[in-house]
Amino acid sequence: MKKIILLVMAIGIGLSSMAQQAYKFKIDTKEYQKIELTDFAVEPIKSSVITSATTKPIISIPTADRDVNIVNIIPIGTAANAYGFSGTQCPFPVRTDINTIAFIHRMGGDLDPGGYSGDMGYDVSMDGGLTWTTQVEFWEAIDNGGGEYFIDAARYPNAGIATPEGGSGAYLNYYMPLLWDSNGGWGGYGVGVANFGDPSLNTRNTISYDEDTDLMISVPGGYDISSQGLAIGVDTDDDVDGSTYNGAIAVTKGVWDNGAQDYVYTLEAFDLDLSVSNGSADQKVAFSPDGETGYISIIGNDGEAEQVGGLSNYYPIIFKTTDGGASWSEPTFIQLDGPNGLEGIVNNHLTDELIAELFEAPVPAREEISYTVGFDHDLAVDANGNLHIGVLIAPTGSDPQSIVTAKGFTAVVDIFTTDGGTTWYVEEMGRPSTFRGTFGEISSDNRVKITVNEDANKFFFSYLDTDIEDAEDNDRPNIWCRGFEPATYMKTMNSQGEDAATNVTLFSSGMWQAYYGMAARKCFTNANGYNIPYVYQEMDAADPIAAVQYQYITDFYFTDADFTVQAINDPVENISALNSVSQNYPNPFNNQSNVMVSLSEASNLSIEVYTLTGQVVSARDYGYMTTGSHTLTINGADLTAGVYFYTVTAGENKITRKMIVE
């Protein structure tokens, strides 16, 4: 029997103030467990073995009959322990125009004997990841002479790569939270630059509580540098202990100063009422290739979205800029569920069997089921300024901001727009078997990441999953990836030619051990295709405060030829008259295309063709048709090249597909 895990973030508010729940879960017949949204952990001072009932032994890796797409993995830097490599940060920047990739991390470990874990360094490759310089230290914490931690010990870093006009080559921009409190409390950021060509050219600055804006800052979730050189970090304004959200998003903006030969930062408050969810689970920021259009996305609940089924969920809340970050829009939310939600979630996410398994009779209608997003997400912006959100979705649990994580109920998706944010769509990228892996006092969720090519027209969605039969926890993870081309709605298939994500670490030395795996935000494009950079940490899962070795995956590729799957989430066929509707063929086409329809009973039959914005460009009513197969014709001679939808209607039943006109 499947196990349903409800992961919750306690928010100090009950459901009594919300609408009456319209349905009940079958919690009396399933294991029901609550796991809180995890905070950023601070490791113990001295290493000791931490045992856990969920910890599995390290598994030996097979050496024969390996997959033809096996990847090569090389060691890079080391760190004193596994704490500090969080899924919400961006420590893995790439600049394809200078063929440079870097990884920022804490110091210590085998390559830094005696090094303090509060110091910070980086590894860098200037030949596209082939060779590396490792353990370049640029931040040394100050020994305060008392307390458990040094003053300004660094953790959970973000980083970017900048080549500012008037600077001296390429710089690592760093942006990281500091403990600051000698007893382990969060208290500000460390910011500055480190010159790749001359390690002596480093700057060291701190940002702490801002009296002018009254912003209390702690652990930022999002960071990006636009092509115009604007650096932006995003955090939430919380009490010093992190227990209470104070009503604002803290946005740190950095611009290059030639005189200082450094980035100079200012701190700004974006008001956002998240009292329903008592803050945000995650924050991200990303810019388009030209640097003009950018988005800040917050995972939270601002009380504006319809609370379907009387349940309180998480959903994306968006700020947008079209002037390179000089000004930002008011926040807008994305409705996931209900009659005004995303069709791919509302109608296509759960089969009838899964609905019957999850809910007591009478089971709810599809538009009555509440959906939520997971606790972290990632952003990318295409060349036309359209946002893509990589995130995990699933039904909402019975507790506020909880999520059903049993096998089959979750999916990694791309929530994206084609018109700048007016209309939103969703495409599924994979169905993870597990959700969270826990190692001592730290944990790692699926860690959904988006990687884009330089032209920002290919998107690669990566995540962690333990797919071992009967696995309940994501504690022996592989890295998985799927490519998506929005212009053609084509997706990649896996190495076996199936309509599914690819297991990146299958049969490699990282198989079942790709702990805290992370994809870079940009990929390298070369003669072999799209080279997607990955890093993970080799660690003892039973002792996360032992030293770790970071590993870099050198040669995972997709090519244009791999984009072979028509990206359409088939509606769940809970129908009588309309038995099946084929994908149109040929597809793509420029003149005429055919659609095969099978009717299980006689019915009125019609077909409509419409644009991405919903404009009907063709419609034909075939009238009353008998049981059996029928061929419908779509005339594309008068249609401009692009992506369209077609909907076949039989009685009260409808099925929609996508098609491409050349």
Task: Describe the fold and architecture.
The chain is mostly beta strands. The strands form 12 sheets. Strands 27, 28, 29, 30, 31 and 38 form a 6-stranded antiparallel β-sheet that branches. A hairpin with a 6-residue loop joins strand 27 and strand 28. The longest helix has 7 residues, at 352-358. Mean pLDDT is 86; it is low at 1-19, 28-36, 47-68 and 569-575.
Give a summary of the structure in a few sentences.
2% of the residues lie in helices and 40% in strands. It contains 2 helices and 45 strands. It is globular.
Query: Which band does the percent of strand residues land in?
Result: 35-45%
Number of helices: 2
Which structural class matches the secondary elements?
Answer: mainly beta
Main β sheet profile: 6 strands, antiparallel
Outline the secondary-structure elements.
Layout: E1 4-8, E2 32-36, E3 73-79, E4 94-95, E5 100-106, E6 120-125, E7 133-139, E8 158-162, E9 171-177, E10 189-195, E11 205-207, E12 222-225, E13 231-238, E14 245-257, E15 262-271, E16 282-287, E17 294-300, E18 315-321, E19 332-333, H1 343-346, H2 352-358, E20 371-381, E21 387-395, E22 403-404, E23 411-417, E24 424-430, E25 437-439, E26 442-444, E27 449-452, E28 459-465, E29 478-485, E30 490-492, E31 502-503, E32 518-519, E33 524-526, E34 529-531, E35 534-538, E36 548-553, E37 557-558, E38 563-566, E39 578-581, E40 592-599, E41 603-610, E42 616-625, E43 628-635, E44 642-650, E45 653-661
Parallel strand pairs: 1-2
Antiparallel strand pairs: 1-22, 3-36, 4-5, 5-6, 6-7, 8-9, 9-10, 10-11, 12-13, 13-14, 14-15, 16-17, 17-18, 18-19, 20-21, 21-23, 23-24, 25-26, 27-28, 28-29, 29-30, 29-31, 30-38, 32-35, 33-34, 34-37, 35-36, 39-40, 40-43, 41-42, 41-44, 44-45
